[in-house]
Task: inverse folding
């Protein structure tokens, strides 16, 4: 299962991890297998500041898992249902789905309003 590793910092994050260069843009993310991501976040790495190696500090990174995929992995039942009949195992999955429905509805509505204005003009 892939998870997202977010860089909450405003600085580009670079690190060599398991002989690979890991680069995460500011306020961006990368996807990585869950077990590898946990090892990556837990590994110690002193960082350089003004040419000196500092021994303190926490990686400005966080892990984001897809709650719906995790629930599916552990075979939890689908107990939440959306207005369009789609079923979900978690509240988070339902919330994300409803948000996407709202965005689609707004796009459709605004698109039809533009068509009406064009016809009147």
Result:
């Amino acid at each position: 299962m892939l998870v997202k590793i977010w860089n909450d910092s405003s600085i580009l994050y670079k690190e060599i991890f398991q002989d690979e260069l890991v680069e995460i843009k500011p306020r961006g993310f990368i996807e990585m297998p869950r077990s590898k991501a946990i090892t990556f976040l837990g590994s110690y790495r002193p960082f350089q500041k003004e040419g000196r190696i500092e021994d303190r500090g926490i990686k400005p990174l966080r892990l984001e898992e897809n709650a719906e995929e995790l629930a599916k992995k552990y075979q939890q039942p689908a107990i939440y249902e959306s207005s369009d009949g789609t079923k979900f195992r978690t509240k988070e999955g339902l919330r994300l789905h409803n948000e996407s429905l709202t965005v689609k509805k707004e796009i459709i509505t605004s698109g039809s309003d533009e068509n009406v204005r064009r016809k009147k003009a």
In short: Confidence is low (pLDDT under 50) at residues 113-121. Helices lie at 34-42, 67-73, 91-120. Residues 4 and 31 are 5 Å apart (CA to CA).
